[in-house]
Amino acid sequence: MLTFPSNQRVFLACGSTDLRKSIDGLAAIVQESFGLNPFSSGLFVFCNRACNKLKILYWDHNGVWLYYRRLERGRFQWPKGKEEVVAISSRELRWLLDGLSLSQRQAHPKVHAVTVI
Predict the structure, then answer these.
(1) Are the C-beta atoms of 80 and 14 separated by less than 8 Å?
(2) Tens digits of per-residue pLDDT, 27-74?
(3) ∠ CA(81), CA(89), CA(99), 5° rounding?
(4) Do you know which Pfam families this protein is assigned to (predicted)?
(5) Helix (H), strand (E) at residue 13
(6) Using only C-alpha atoms, what is the Rg of the chain?
């Protein structure tokens, strides 16, 4: 299981992406289409047209990680919005990876406790 810090910046490429692209092709999309720096500490997430495969591009110190996930059954609940890229939290990324929608309301809200009852 992938785990990311709770403050990790995550950027989703809305709609579908040709996942035949590898690191250089996806980094070019991040830089040229989204106007973001692929060498920043963010996660850049792409999904195919069938919504059953995704790739995550991540710069780490001196090299690029390319995570790839293929579902054997089911589909990711991928946003098809008008925007090219959407910033989400690492918690929302976990929802997507678990098959949930970004707009789902089933999860418990985050609690910022300051005292023990």
Answers:
(1) yes
(2) 999 999 999 999 998 999 999 999 999 999 999 889 999 999 999 989
(3) 65
(4) TnpB_IS66
(5) strand 10-13
(6) 15
